[in-house]
């Protein structure tokens, strides 16, 4: 990567995103329904119990109602999961020998990380009163604009701050590669005229991470991080089908309180299947499927996401020890990457706000009850609903 605009072409050394978890589905041995004949070998789903194989087929929804019925009846639960208290999130240490660090899952991650370049950064004053620094990334595996929302002034991107030959101080300020704050008439990017703080670079123009100059060195203290996947419906269209909007706001609140943190915002709408397919999945859910079944019926994996871009972005920001806000154990393994470039030292649970008591704020709907139930029962999310909170009906 020789300049911020010089992104390697797709053919160069592309690390392929790997879908996270291949959903294991237990076939109910006592079921009386008979499986319909297999049609093809696509979208093979392995049974966790007996290792038999089920196949899904194209246009199954309209063409094969009996198959749908069979699938709906026989998708049973595989991942009993438990954990945290529903109150204020307390972080849970992630120990290298624990249940999350499943070697098979780690070994299935790509050997190489995608290449990312932070092309611009800007200060955003927010309606909450805090200031954030929005970082926009390009990469060599897709054409999407992934983001890092950074809380705290001294988290710095290596690729953004790199000095390029012939680049002026004005160019650097325009890209957002400056120390301190911008104000009318400022003319240096690498030195803050108000405080005298200065950035330092090696002979290749790479930023030197240095405590004395208020640039955060490789952080020994873990930084609070959320890896958030885009959800137009939950974040913009006030959807009560999922808790994505609430999780996003809560992550921002916690990071604002801590004065430091980073939300990596990945453009993988609908767990990677895209908004159009997610809307179809919603219609299937209204017809009786759960979130996992709806994806499978549309011939998508239960979760089509990859988190290797998040790993690369965190490494670019020099955030290598992190406390991860998540209930999804797959994310912990995925974001650490095959070689554990990033280390998740703690997991901070994201407990739905509505579970904090009968009068608590938070999303309440029958759809979200089903959505969370499926996450817990089928996707292994580490949440346990307190028994004193009744289901919405
Ligand atoms: N396919 C599909 N995607 C959904 C649905 N509801 C929300 N999403 C997407 O799910 C993604 C968020 O992932 P979640 O599975 O909710 O949570 P997670 O990121 O795996 O785990 P946490 O870190 O604990 O939040 C976003 O991309 C949403 O757009 C749905 O019903 N179907």
TrEMBL record:
Pfam families: GTP_cyclohydro2. InterPro entries: GTP_cyclohydro_II, RibA, RibA-like_sf. Keywords: GTP-binding, Hydrolase, Nucleotide-binding, Riboflavin biosynthesis. It catalyses: GTP + 4 H2O = 2,5-diamino-6-hydroxy-4-(5-phosphoribosylamino)-pyrimidine + formate + 2 phosphate + 3 H(+). GO terms for biological process: riboflavin biosynthetic process. Gene3D superfamilies: GTP cyclohydrolase II. The keyword 4Fe-4S does not apply. Residues 220-349 form the GTP cyclohydrolase II domain. Residues 1-61 are annotated as: Disordered. SUPFAM superfamilies: RibA-like. Pathway: Cofactor biosynthesis; riboflavin biosynthesis. PANTHER family: GTP CYCLOHYDROLASE II-RELATED, GTP CYCLOHYDROLASE-2. NCBIfam families: PRK00393.1 (NF001591), ribA (TIGR00505). This is GTP cyclohydrolase II. It comes from Saccharomycopsis crataegensis.
């Amino acid at each position: 990567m020789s300049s911020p605009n010089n992104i390697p072409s797709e053919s160069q050394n592309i690390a392929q995103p790997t879908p996270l978890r291949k959903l294991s589905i237990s076939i109910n041995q006592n079921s009386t329904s008979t499986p319909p004949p297999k049609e093809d070998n696509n979208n093979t789903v392995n049974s966790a119990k007996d290792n038999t194989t089920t196949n899904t087929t194209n246009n199954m929804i309209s063409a094969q109602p009996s198959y749908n019925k069979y699938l709906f009846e026989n998708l049973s639960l595989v991942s009993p999961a438990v954990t945290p208290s529903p109150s204020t999130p307390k972080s849970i240490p992630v120990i290298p020998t624990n249940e999350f660090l499943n070697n098979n899952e780690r070994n299935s991650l790509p050997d190489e990380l995608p290449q990312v370049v932070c092309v611009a950064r800007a200060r955003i004053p927010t309606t909450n009163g805090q200031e954030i620094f929005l970082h926009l990334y390009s990469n060599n595996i897709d054409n999407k604009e992934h983001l890092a929302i950074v809380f705290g002034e001294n988290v710095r991107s290596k690729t953004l701050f790199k000095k390029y030959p012939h680049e002026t101080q004005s160019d650097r300020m325009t890209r957002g590669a400056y120390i301190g704050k911008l104000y009318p008439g400022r003319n240096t990017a690498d030195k803050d005229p108000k405080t005298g703080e200065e950035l330092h670079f090696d002979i290749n123009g790479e930023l030197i991470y240095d405590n004395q100059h208020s640039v955060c060195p490789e952080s020994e203290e873990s930084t609070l991080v959320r890896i958030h996947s885009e959800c137009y419906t939950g974040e913009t269209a006030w959807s009560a089908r999922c808790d994505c909007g609430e999780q996003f706001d809560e992550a921002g609140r916690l990071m604002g309180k801590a004065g430091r943190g980073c939300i990596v915002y990945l453009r993988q709408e609908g767990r990677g299947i895209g908004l159009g397919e997610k809307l179809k999945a919603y219609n299937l859910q209204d017809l009786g499927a759960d979130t996992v079944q709806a994806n499978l019926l549309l011939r998508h994996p239960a979760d089509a996401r990859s988190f290797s871009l998040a790993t690369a972005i965190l490494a670019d920001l020099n955030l290598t020890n992190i406390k991860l806000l998540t209930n999804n154990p797959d994310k912990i393994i995925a974001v650490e990457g095959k070689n554990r470039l990033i280390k998740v030292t703690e997991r901070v649970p994201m407990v739905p706000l509505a579970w904090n008591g009968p009068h608590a704020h938070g999303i309440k709907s029958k759809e979200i009850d089903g959505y969370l139930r499926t996450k817990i029962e089928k996707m292994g999310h580490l949440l346990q609903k307190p028994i004193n909170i009744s289901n919405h009906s």
